[in-house]
Design a protein that fits this description.
Shape: globular
Strand content: 15-25%
CATH superfamily of the largest domain: PAS domain
Number of helices: 9
Largest sheet: 5 strands, antiparallel
Radius of gyration: 19 Å
Number of domains: 2
Helix content: 40-55%
Order of helices and strands: HHEEHEEHEEEHHHHH
Distance between the termini: 66 Å
CATH class of the largest domain: Alpha Beta
Length: about 220
Amino acid sequence: MTGAKEAPSAEKPFESMKMTDIDVKSRQGGTQDHAPLLELNDRYERAAFVVDGDAHLIEANEYADRLLKCGTDLRLRDNFIEFAEKNGQSRFSDTLRQLCAKSTGSQEEFIIECPSTGRRPIHMEIQKISGEDRFLVTAVDLNETAIGPMARLQHVFDLTKREADIARLMATPLTEAEIANSLGISTNTLRSHRKTIYAKLNVANRVDLTLLLRRLA
């Protein structure tokens, strides 16, 4: 006598999905180790997702789980990143599609506001990853985030956004080659930016730069 068939399990509600479960599956068969980029964004309390051109999730950091559950319009459905509100989804999809046609290292940033749903606004950045047809999507809940050290760097020392991004990465254990690769630029271009950054911040090396960023944090 055979037992009764188990009823098919219902799809887990969005709120109960764990990014760690998805992460384990998504790491299999990856073409590049994205761990340094994801861990860096965890350190700065930013959600980070690696997606393909269709917004299918490849990998995500731990902080992404917090953002997905904190009442923003960003959500994960069938392993695709999307927005509940139509306007936000259109903005996200259009930006991703435009970056597909651009060169490695190209990036766009924008704010998704959701007046019709009343959900919390999100600051988004999307960057094409070097050597892959994949994208790094970072997101910050603007209701939780005061002006951070990078914004203060730009304001106080008159850094461009690119210079602030490089300064942030140079204050990590990443090598110059790894930083250049993550930004889609050559090491010579990186060193040119580094010279300008050191002059603006009046520091002599990466140790001084790191100490300055810690004081600003």
